[in-house]
């Protein structure tokens, strides 16, 4: 049996959520997707996730949700992290941190998809070794899931490439998130793991990583604190479509997808964000 898995890059604010609401169902139908995995750590006002937006993403058709360095930005998501099995934060954070590092989803075809979230250490906040965490958690996840996905949420491309080779043959796919810039290096590694360094961003691409260009330029040029408002132009969903054979556990295909959204003015306040739609950091 073959499963089609859709891995969606970092959702940024209301524009990113809106394109999922408008386009995700049709993408799933068109490509026969069996499981949708999305990084949502920037989904609420550009940083963090709320329980209300978590519920919305599930209604839009997302099956597994991953988070990264902004996992705990919205404190009211912590109860959801502790309770739900379909949302994960990086497994190599402190063992005392809220939430889980692995999650599972049983597909309509029967096989279960498991995801392991990891965070890098170069140019990032302190975290435990992601490679040791992969060695610890993949065997446990293999007891729960037929197909395993590894998300590497990291700044440095070298860490992501290294993780791809580290889990090659032990995961159906290893995909990178965090930089918001899609890379063109999608491939299947020697032992059968589909790999891409970064899936990219789901949000406004007429921007600097989803934020209004003038706000970011002002901050960079003046070195003064400036609110990074969420941009609204050229909204796209970036994702990869991966086909994995459930018998061999190996990937047979990986393809980048870019889906354009409708032009809209998504600026301003959204009650589900719990604050105005801007944040002063990436």
Describe the fold and architecture.
The chain has a single domain (2-204, 233-262), classed as Purple Acid Phosphatase, chain A, domain 2, CATH 3.60.21.10. The strands form 4 sheets. Strands 1, 2, 3, 4, 5, 12, 14 and 15 form an 8-stranded mixed sheet that branches. It has helices at 13-31, 51-60, 78-83, 130-142, 157-167, 213-222; strands at residues 2-8, 10-11, 35-39, 64-66, 87-88, 102-106, 112-119, 147-153, 173-177, 187-188, 194-196, 201-204, 228-229, 235-245, 251-260, 269-270, 275-276, 278-279. It has 282 residues and is of the alpha/beta class. The termini are far apart. Helices cover 24% and strands 29% of the residues. A hairpin with a 5-residue loop joins strand 10 and strand 11. It is globular and about 55 Å long. The chain has 6 helices and 18 strands.
């Amino acid at each position: 049996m073959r499963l089609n898995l859709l891995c969606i890059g970092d959702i940024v604010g209301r524009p990113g959520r809106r394109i999922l609401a408008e386009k995700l169902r049709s993408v799933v139908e068109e490509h026969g997707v069996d499981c949708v995995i999305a990084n949502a750590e920037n989904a609420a006002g550009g940083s963090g996730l709320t329980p209300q937006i978590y519920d919305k993403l599930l209604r839009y058709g997302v099956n597994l949700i991953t988070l990264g360095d902004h996992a705990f930005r919205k404190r009211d998501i912590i109860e959801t992290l502790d309770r739900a099995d379909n949302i994960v934060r990086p497994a190599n954070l402190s063992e005392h941190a809220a939430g889980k590092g692995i999650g599972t989803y049983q597909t309509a075809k029967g096989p279960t998809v498991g995801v392991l979230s990891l965070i890098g250490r170069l140019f990032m906040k302190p975290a435990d070794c992601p490679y040791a965490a992969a060695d610890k958690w993949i065997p446990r996840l293999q007891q729960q899931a037929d197909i395993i996905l590894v998300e590497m949420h990291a700044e440095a491309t070298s860490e992501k490439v290294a993780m791809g080779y580290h889990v090659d043959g032990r995961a159906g796919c290893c995909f990178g998130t965090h930089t918001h810039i899609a890379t063109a290096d999608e491939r299947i590694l020697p032992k059968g793991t589909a790999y891409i360094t970064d899936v990219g961003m789901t949000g406004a691409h007429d921007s600097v990583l989803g934020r209004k260009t003038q706000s970011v330029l002002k901050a960079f040029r003046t070195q003064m604190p400036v609110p990074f408002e969420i941009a609204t132009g050229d909204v796209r969903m970036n994702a990869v479509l991966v086909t994995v054979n459930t018998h061999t556990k190996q990937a047979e295909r990986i393809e980048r997808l870019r889906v354009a959204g409708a032009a809209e003015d998504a600026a301003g306040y959204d009650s589900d964000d719990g604050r105005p739609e801007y944040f002063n950091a990436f």
